[in-house]
Fold each of these.
Amino acid sequence: MSPEPVPIAGPPHRVLIPEGHGNHRDQRPRPKPSWPWWGAVLLLIMAAVAAMLLLDRSDTTTAELAPPMVDSPPATAPSP
């Protein structure tokens, strides 16, 4: 008498997924964005900083930005 074969314990080699349960959508590769989302955040931050710098510069006059010239006579000098 030959002994009966003992089934080997473990998962089967190939798992069959029944159709119509939504599992076929998970295996489709997702489309990658053309550039990552943090690129948009970085661009937004840079635009905000540039706008703040431009708005901050607009309320200063050119006399405050440029140093006074030394060789020019003062404007309030009394005339003799």
Note: Residues 71 and 77 are 14 Å apart (CA to CA).
Amino acid sequence: MKLQHMLVAIACSTIVFFGGLAGTASADTVDVLAEQLRAKGVISEEEYQSLKSVSGYEKEKAAKMDSKMQKLEKKMKGKKKKKYPSTKMEGRMMLDYRDHSPDATADLKGKPSPAIDIRRARLGTKVKLADNIKGEVVLDISEDGAELDSAKMAYKLPNKMSMVFGKTKVPFSLEEMTSSRWIDFQERSLANAYGGVGKNPSIGLVGKLGDVGGFYLAYASQETKDDQEGKMTALRATANFGTPKESVFHIGLGITQGDRAEGGVDRTYAGRGQRFFKADDIDTASGEYEHSRQGLELAVAVGSFKAQYETITTNYSGVEATTNPGSFDKDIVTSYLNLMYMVTGEQYAKAYKTSSGKFDKIKPINKDKGAIEIGVRFASFDGSDFDAGNGPRLTSGYTSEADSTTYGLKWIPTTNVRFLINYQVTDYETAVTSVDSETKEKTWLTRAQFSF
């Protein structure tokens, strides 16, 4: 009898073993066999219960294995081989209305006041060429005809830094690096209407500064008439000492240093109105002069409130050969302070990108009514170094100092649609001929825009 029981146990154990390999079906077979053996008196009730417990364990183990296999199968199905290149369309449209007082005889776009125009109409494509290579080409197809806005390729290196090649924004200034789709006011401030560098052909290196910030180093063209000169090196580094998605305590430093071909000093205007600052053209024996910028950025965002400040010093130095000959070293200092508030409760920190050190889109909390934002900006321009001395001097009929205040109201019905109305008042130190020889210019600006 003992031998019989031993053989039964061996048989059942064998079935249980292979049942564990085959799944729950074999475990069910063990249950049926045990029932039959107990009914015929071959095994006792105690032995039957022992076999049942072993069978139950095998069922549970098989079920877990089956679940793991199903999850693995789903995971493998989800990892389909990516096909490259993959593309995505993008674009934006901005319709502007501007009314200057006194009326501008011809604004920055050469249009009389009041003016209505397509400020931007851009269409482009983002393309992914590999897991670590992506590109972008954007055309501006506004009223002045199609022209290249930007074209770049980014190659991600093994150390998580990226090389950037093409025509793109030279890294400098928080306001300039923020997309025109998401800037606080309709037009950028006096600091960037004058001191910004824009989009130039460049080669750059982009990386992170741990978890708190990032940097962007570039060697870029000044896009001047001199093929041998007109190059600059630019560096921007930023850090956020706030809590991600909850608060922003941003600090940024930017510099550009390079040579520029002789010629006129940069354009200067407020609200795309009349040019109020102009100096003599620079003419040097070498055909070049030194040009540099230094910028400081500060931003604080807590809840629905944001304060953003920048100051930029732009330097011109060289040896003038024609008008007021001799060595010159002159600065233009510009700055602005934005105070912004989301009436509908959205948080600015959620729109901040730590790695790139800039603010992005606002997502309305109420998807039916959208978001409402109000703000005020104080900006200043000081080019008093050009009032006297060697080299370029202020041209008669223009002014070397200005202060501007802008009030803004914005409705964001959905993330990619915005309606803006701004009122800007600019005070000039001396009367400006192009502003009817007055010392004050007032401008209403409105915009309807969408992007995708």
Note: The longest strand covers residues 326-342.
